[in-house]
Known about the structure:
Elements: H1 4-41, H2 47-53, E1 56-57, E2 60-61, H3 66-85
Antiparallel strand pairs: 1-2
Amino acid sequence: MNSPVKTQRQARRIHRWFVPIAAAPLLLTAGTGSIYSLLLEQGIDAFWLLKIHTGHFGWLNLQSFYPLLLGVLTIVVTGSGVVMLLRPSR
């Protein structure tokens, strides 16, 4: 069985590797959703922002599995962060 220190070290390694990968699509989704909402309040319908928000990037259409990708990335980053917060017992 893994020691708590080794588990925490593995969590840090996973977390450091996944955060840059997960941050880009999560920030893109949050940003485009917020900007679309603000523009819609001003009477501007920027539908292209909604397409980016849902994973349709021009010729690259990820809409069928983009929500699943965002969910998995969020769970992995959150889980590894929680493990890092737990202090190993001595």
